Amino acid sequence: MEGQIASTEELRPTEIEAVVRAAVRAGVERVKLTGGEPTLRTDIVDIVRRIAALGPEVSMTTNGLKLTELAGPLKAAGLRRVNISLPSLDAATYRELTGVDGLSRTIAGVGAAVAAGLSPVKLNVVALAGSTADSAGFQRLVEFAREVGAWIQVIEFENVRGRVDPDVYRSLHSELGRLTKEAVRSAFPTGYNPLHHRPRYDITDGGPPVTLEVVQPVENPAFCMSCERLRLTSDGHLKGCLMTNAGLVDLRAILRRPDPEEGLAEAFALAVDRRRPFFVGPETPSPEPSPFGPGAELPMVSIRP
Predict the structure, then answer these.
(1) Which of 237, 235, 224 has the alpha carbon at shortest distance from 284?
(2) Which terminus, N or C, of the chain has the lesser number of Cβ atoms within 10 Å?
(3) CA separation (Å) from 294 to 25, 223, 287?
(4) How would you label 173-204 residue by residue, b for 16+ Cβ within 10 Å and e otherwise?
(5) Element (H, E) at 268
(6) C-alpha neighbours within 13 Å on the C-beta side of residue 86
(7) pLDDT at residue 2 is higher than 60
(8) Cα separations in angstroms, 31 against 38, 137, 161, 202, 214
(9) Residues 127/88, Cβ–Cβ less than 8 Å
């Protein structure tokens, strides 16, 4: 999973179901399956079915390579919408960025998702100099989205220490504000996605409108303040922020109990209490005191620093 410490362990569908049940009882209304690549799990349709039966909206982020075969079954299982990573509409650039000659399969996957009734289908596009951040490349993306009936989600390329080669960052980073200003010349604002305070526009340059969302984790000062996500790693840890592994809450011992419900509820409360923006040190106090006491650790939950 993105931002996860390498692990050979993997939660079973029944364990994922138990965690989501506890989350729903705590008030969680939306669940997104991400990766790595979630469609590599042979039991992904079963996982979606189990989660959807509990009531939350279920969505997924995927590279789209397996959606031609899975979009229909996933929709039938209860998947509502999907984000599809689309690094480039140029086959050579796609292959260079991903290491896979998969553009045609991803495009077919986008079509399959739209045909299956997953809505909206959002195209996740990282703004890169020389391709998606340039005027011609972006216009090509708008035309493709209009043709298939998808949204566009443009994402700022982040200089993540230890994960992104500084030379690669310098060569590919594009100041997202300039792209946004150019993109919205023929658009009108329609509001914000409350998650991360993402501005949303409809591009209306002579054709049917194309919805554009802008994800700016660096340039948007409200990004972290408007984040309400908790992440469940594939090996069973609750994680308060994508960008740090500080304060992980280990659920594995709780999940092995005959009745894990109470322990999971307490673990969720602790994980929320330990949430911090990734740039804030662990010594910073919580905005509100923990119901278990300041800095409390529950005996049934182990915390990895």
Answers:
(1) 224
(2) C
(3) 24, 26, 11
(4) bbebeebbeebbeebeeeeeeeebbbbbbbbe
(5) helix 261-273
(6) 32
(7) no
(8) 13, 32, 28, 26, 21
(9) no
Phi, psi of 158 (to 5 degrees): -95, 145
Kindly report the number of other CB atoms within 10 A of residue 151's CB atom.
Answer: 19
Residues of the chain with CATH 3.20.20.70: 37-215
Query: What is the distance between the alpha carbons of residues 95 and 55, in angstroms, rounded to a whole number?
Result: 38
Task: Quote the tokens at residue 130.
Answer: 């020389």
Name every residue whose Cβ is closer than 8 Å to that of residue 169 and which is 6 or more positions away in sequence. 157, 159
Strand, coil or helix: what is 299?
A: coil
Q: Provide the token pair at 96.
A: 């260079």
Mean pLDDT confidence for 256-260: 92
**Helix residue spans in 204-251 (DSSP H):** none
**DSSP strands (E only) in the chain:** 30-33, 57-62, 79-85, 121-126, 151-155, 187-193, 198-203, 210-215, 231-232, 237-239, 248-250, 302-304
Is residue 149 packed enough to be buried (19+ CB in 10 Å), middle (13-18) or exposed (0-12)?
A: middle
Name residue 59's amino acid.
Answer: S
Judge whether 46 and 71 are in contact, CB under 8 Å. no
**Residue 207: predicted pLDDT:** 80
Which residues have C-beta within 8 Å of that of residue 219, sequence separation ≥ 6?
Answer: 156, 176, 177
Burial class (CB in 10 A: 0-12, 13-18, 19+), 208: exposed
Query: What is the maximum span of the chain, computed from C-alpha positions, in angstroms?
Result: 61
Q: Fold for domain 37-215?
A: TIM Barrel (3.20.20)
| Least confident stretch, 74-78, 166-170, 282-286 | 282-286
Strands in 237-239's sheet, in edge-to-edge order, are: 231-232, 237-239, 248-250, 302-304
Over residues 80-87, the mean pLDDT reads 96
